[in-house]
Amino acid sequence: MKFHREGTNIMLITTLGTVVVNVFFLALFGKDNPLVWFVFLLSVLYLIFTFRFFRVPNRPNQDLPPNELVCPADGKVVVIEKVQYAGAEHTQVSIFMSPLNVHINWYPIDGVVAESTYKPGKFLVAWHPKSSELNEKHELVMQTTGGHIGLKQIAGAVARRIVNYAEPASQVKRGDEMGFIKFGSRVDVLLPTHAEVLVNLGQKVTGNQTVLARL
Fold it and tell me: What is the pTM of this model?
């Protein structure tokens, strides 16, 4: 299994911490103490969770029509609604990521990065109705052949580390890595109103695989 570069330091620190904690408890209480085995079990489970969080799945790009968007993240569709964005009405589709999901974010379609902006904010839970507006986020505007598309990587109550690789004016391809959100949150996609949304509210989706919409 491959692991994402964003997790390198965290995985090393967690591994070292697991070793230190278990050696300490073993030296203090001895191997026959139930507490030692309890600490060992908990620490190993946490280590496995940490490594699993930063896993890199095999998600080959699909041969899709150029006007179709794939989901930029794993998770569950929690919002499909009309909103005002950049002075015009758009359709917002929001995907909530739990700590068990893959947390890589992908570009949903070919295009040019017109804007890339980090915006500080609050850390409301990711499913809060106002989290899209008020939370810390990294926001992109992409120019595509079907019009402008907005993408928001939004921090949540637990996820307070957003990584984004976008360079303004760069040409990107559907399936390229857009960034990474550590330990759960959400991604909003802002579509032109003429787009046909192909996912349903409550649907579980797979990043870079499930088709989100058609322009």
Answer: 0.86
